[in-house]
Amino acid sequence: MSANEAHDREHDIVVYGATGFVGKLTAQYLAAAGAGARIALAGRSTDRLLAVRESLGEAAQDWPLLVADASQPSTLNAMAASTRVVITTVGPYLRYGLPLVAACAAAGTDYADLTGETLFVRECIDLYHKQAADTGARIVHACGFDSIPSDMTVFALYRAAERDRTGELGDTNFVVRSFAGGVSGGTVASMTELARQASQDPEARRLLNDPYTLTPDRAAEPELGAQPDARWRRGREIAPELDGYWVGAFAMALPNTRVVRRSNALLGYAYGRRFEYAEQMSTGRSVGAPLVAAMATAGNVATMELSSRFLDRVPRGALERILPKVGTGPSEQTRERGHYTVETYTTTSTGARYLARMSQQGDPGYKATSVLLGESGLALALDRDKLSDLRGILTPAAAMGDALLARFPAAGVSLDVSRLN
């Protein structure tokens, strides 16, 4: 029996980074939805942790407080050994994340984070996948708006096609249909750190351009030709239901698509050997929609290209003065008004067409993300009979796809699949 399966851990879930903006939101969600779970809060400052706990209401007043700091690995080791699951909001992960992954992999402790940093995930795979698999740890990256809607809509399509016996998934397209909300300071910091590393290292740029960056075995992947991350086109090229609409580049397509392709590989290519996946965002059907789609795509390409080549020439302090601050976020009213709806279309090997539609109320980068991360932690801690048998560096769908599908309705997450023909 692995350490992670033992029942002598003091906590079920530790929220690491609980004094940060999204960390506090996640703690608030767990205080409301985590009945039956033994939860602790962790961070660098006892005083700040006390203030967070006092703000959470009666349900959280007996939650233990743990002092842990990425600069002191021994504190992370002790934290990981005390719990079944660590959920962490402490980024940028390339800068701060590896010591915690190392601690969880060594202790056989499950882990969930919010990273959209592809190079960080690749490094975790290279350094810790085997150890985590040996100790029984599930290290699950990308458990927020990036990349659960992407990963779970495709997983739901796969389950529908499997149920109907309509073959493997083929051409599959994720489309952001509506989105209202801001971008967190943590997300901006993570993307800046990723681009900075790419600007300094040609090998990092090569990895970012590879559609199978996160695959367990690059040589085993099918050669399906170009799978561009930034494209603009008519919606009807994706599905007849999108006739009249235009779509352009979606800013988070690069990390999300790599996560989804890793899920397929981890699940033994259950989605199919001819599975192709792309992400876009709808710009509507107005007269100006094609221009907006084209500009969004061109802007995405230019930003990625310029930042990955020249960001290392910009002093870190100069960027930190103008970009959103880590640990900050919008007002509660703004968070409540936010929302998103995404649609993922697929055509199977027998010609069956399906649509998965997923939506949440709440700012995608803040409120919605805190729900998704909180439910991921609860699934890992409490729904172990519904989790996959996989261990190591995993994706949300590969680790806990069925558990999350079961949890979504009660959490206010709508995910429905319909057959279109």
From TrEMBL:
One of its GO terms (cellular component) is plasma membrane. SUPFAM superfamilies: NAD(P)-binding Rossmann-fold domains (SSF51735). GO terms for biological process: glycolipid biosynthetic process. Residues 13-139 form the Saccharopine dehydrogenase NADP binding domain. Belongs to the saccharopine dehydrogenase family. Enoyl reductase subfamily. PANTHER family: SACCHAROPINE DEHYDROGENASE-LIKE OXIDOREDUCTASE. This is Saccharopine dehydrogenase. It comes from Mycolicibacterium vanbaalenii (strain DSM 7251 / JCM 13017 / BCRC 16820 / KCTC 9966 / NRRL B-24157 / PYR-1).
